[in-house]
Design goal:
This protein has about 450 residues and is of the alpha/beta class. It is built from 18 helices and 10 strands. Helix 13 packs parallel to helix 16. Bound molecules: 5-phosphoarabinonic acid (PA5). 5-phosphoarabinonic acid binds next to loops.
């Protein structure tokens, strides 16, 4: 069976192979610390063997709920932010037709609760005003402002449009098993609910109902997604020798690059559908490693689009970056460049070639140019863009992130820094309980 593959060949002009291979013992220690649950953040390791713990019964239940929403809704609004949003969005975008919302196929999936844009929410309200819609409300804490605010608006609108009893049937809540406002509300209103396990943090939760339910509602193959993740759980396990373990080698390489002054990692793709995979990856690594004044800064680009903007910086800007390219070997569709009798655009040299062949040469040309320009290049090759390999990619990145965070000696499973803006926002909004902070912040603003 072919799996996603990692190559660090194009890094070896910048860091030596022996240095990277020299990480073997450290990486093993980190991987064992994850397995034994003896490291920092060890109460959040539920993701580590999550794929292999997913049962057929659980997936059937998720698919049944998805089928109900698909049959009864023209639109399903998925409300959530951060880890309660990005995984589902990433998988749905990467596996759906690029123009799916323009086709008659129902339901359309839209996302909310990931911003506080009044225009966004008002325009969503307008769009939904003549639609039969449902809501998947996702919040582990149940108190996240962005999500709670959107849900309050959506719930009010749905109840007005359908009546309370019908509305309740079309709302699914995904939250903590016992605590929080959303759990309390769900019990009171009788919503169908799913549990986000206590030991799975938001950014590691895509393979829980947080990701799986919206993905199933989008009509995508959750079985294959989970199978791919299960396969990577094995491939990236302790039994795999270091040099053959992609998570181990990726974690080692990026840490060695970081120690050599490469402070920024740019995740690049050559398939527009992968844009949100990079957004998900940025949260995974950014929240896991960016703490204690340490950590690689995670950036992303969509090529070839961004070669016409950030390409200049990557080629010739400050040499503090390295690039990780996700390369999809085979396009799913076939489209050839037509011949043109007049050839005014001069493109007849490409006639008869597949568009993907052109893209591949752009990809190879870019990688070579960037290496020549002083940018180390890590390559992740995906045989094709399907649910199985997206499942592999997800688990690969998660496992590498756990190891990488421990190599950096931080707790990869908390996010204390996220609270700072919330504290200020609540103080500025005079939230009850924040009286002292309100006073202090107002004095500061005088
Ligand atoms: O990774 C995380 O833990 C965060 O990004 C959360 O997922 C995000 O803040 C949303 O939190 P909640 O699910 O509690 O609404």
């Amino acid at each position: 069976m072919e799996d996603i593959k990692l190559s660090i060949k194009s890094c070896l002009d910048f860091v030596s192979e022996s240095k990277v291979m020299g990480y073997e013992a450290q990486v093993r220690k980190c991987a064992e610390t994850l397995e034994n649950g003896t490291g920092k953040g060890n109460d959040f390791l539920g993701w580590l063997h999550l794929p292999s713990s997913i049962t057929k019964e659980f997936l059937s239940d998720v698919k049944e709920t998805a089928a109900f929403l698909r049959a009864n809704c023209d639109v399903v609004v998925v409300a959530g932010i951060g880890g309660s949003y990005l995984g589902a969005k990433a998988v749905i975008d990467s596996l759906s037709n690029s123009f799916s919302w323009l086709y008659a196929k129902k339901p359309v999936i839209v996302f909310a609760g990931n911003n506080i844009g009044e225009d966004y929410l008002a325009e969503l309200t307008e769009y939904l005003s003549d639609k039969k819609f449902g809501i998947i409300n996702i919040s582990k804490s149940g108190t996240t402002t962005e999500t709670a605010l959107a849900f309050r608006l959506l719930k009010t609108q749905l109840e007005k449009q359908m009546g309370k009893a019908e509305a309740c049937k079309r709302i699914v809540a995904i939250t903590d098993k016992a605590k929080g406002a959303l759990r309390t509300l769900s019990t009171k209103e009788g919503y169908k609910t799913y549990v986000i396990p206590d030991n799975v943090g938001g950014r590691f939760s895509v393979l829980t109902p947080v990701g799986l339910l919206p993905i199933a509602v989008a009509g995508l193959d959750v079985d294959a997604l989970v199978e791919g993740a299960q396969r990577m759980e094995k491939v990236c396990g302790l039994d795999t020798p270091f040099a053959e373990n992609p998570a181990a080698v990726y974690a080692a390489t990026r840490n060695e690059l970081y120690r050599n002054g490469k402070k920024i990692e740019i995740l690049a793709n050559f398939q527009p559908k992968l844009h949100f995979i990079a957004e998900w990856w940025k949260q995974l690594y950014g929240e896991s490693e960016g703490k204690e004044n340490k950590g690689i800064f995670n950036a992303s680009v969509d090529f070839t689009t961004d070669l016409h903007s950030m390409g200049q910086w990557i080629q010739e800007g400050e040499r503090s970056i390295f690039e990780t390219v996700i390369s999809v070997k085979k396009a799913n569709k076939k489209l050839e460049v037509p011949t043109d009798a007049e050839n005014l655009d001069g493109l007849n040299f490409l006639a008869g070639k597949r568009v993907d062949d052109v893209n591949k040469m752009a990809e190879l040309g870019t990688r070579l140019a960037h290496v020549d320009g002083g940018v180390p290049n890590i390559l992740i090759e995906m045989p094709e863009l399907n649910a199985f390999y997206i499942g592999e990619l997800i688990y690969f990145f998660e496992k590498a992130c756990g190891i990488s965070g421990y190599l950096l000696d931080v707790n990869p499973f908390n996010q204390p820094g996220v609270e700072a803006y919330k504290k200020n926002m609540f103080a500025l909004l005079n939230k009850p309980g924040y009286e002292a902070e309100s006073k202090a912040i107002q004095a500061r603003l005088k």
